[in-house]
Hints:
The chain is α+β, with helices and mostly antiparallel strands. It is 39% helix and 23% strand. The longest helix has 25 residues. It is elongated. The protein starts with a helix and ends with a strand. This is DRBM domain-containing protein.
Amino acid sequence: MYYILYLSSLCRRRRWPDPHYEVLQCNGGYSCIVRVNHREYYCENVSESEVLAREAAAQRAYQFSVNESQFAKAAGVIVAPSKAIYASTPIM
């Protein structure tokens, strides 16, 4: 339940801009989009509250951002953390 804090800390360590959350009201609950390092991450399920929706989106963004360097190493790609390729929607 601390992924919002984990993600903020990760952004500070990597010198990325702070995460930006956009909560959307859906049928029967809430969904969230979080923008991290010029990428968007969506929570997969509808949540009961805005806080839970933000937490779910932060968890997804954090887990992908932490593992990005592992994916690059496995593929034999050497990239700087701010130049890594993400499996999310780029912001144009």
